[in-house]
Amino acid sequence: MTWTSEAALQVIREQPPPFTFYLGTHETSWLAKSPFPLFVSHTRLKARVKYPKASAPWALDSGAFSELTRHGTWRTEVGEYVASARRYQSQIGFMQWAAPMDWMCEPHMLQRTGLSLERHQNLTVENLMALRQMAPDVHCNSDSPVESSPGAQVSA
User: Is the pTM of this model over 0.90?
Assistant: First the structure.
């Protein structure tokens, strides 16, 4: 059997998985074309003037890796991210949730920011709580995949 997107869709329709897999992409134009759920970065979307209409469910990636790698800190304000997420929800449609503006815990990222693992974890949780309070309609919740790096210890 040759696997085409239509064949894959047929399998999914007949036996839906118990979870939703979001395909990460840097191509914002795929929002209008993809039959599969996508994970699209705020970093890529914020550069657009006009947004595609989503053809399938999708989720918003905060762009944390790009932001922290480039600047060593968050330069995007929480209110700016919330406004953008609401705009994407309204203009693109089909947005399921928005990822928190996390602080990754990989050793190279800790070195880049100069902050401790515990501080990264606290900043991530603080951001999640701020997003929930400011924008409950954007669905920034604990069900979104925020992970610490393998072996990272959660502080008590």
Answer: no
Segment 53-69, tens digit of pLDDT: 999 999 999 999 999 99
- Contacts of residue 32, defined as CB under 8 A and 6 or more positions apart, other chains included, come to 52, 53, 54, 55
User: For residues 117 and 13, what is the distance between their CA atoms, to the nearest angstrom?
Assistant: 42
Task: Note the pLDDT tens digit of each residue in 87-98.
Answer: 999 999 999 999
The C-alpha torsion from 26 through 29 and 34 to 36, rounded to 10°, is: 40
For tokens 């920011």, the residue is: 113
3-state DSSP: the chain helix, strand, coil percent, rounded to 5?
A: 45, 10, 45
Query: Are the CB atoms for 120 and 110 separated by under 8 Å?
Result: yes
Single out the residue of 147, 137, 123 nearest to residue 61, CA to CA.
147
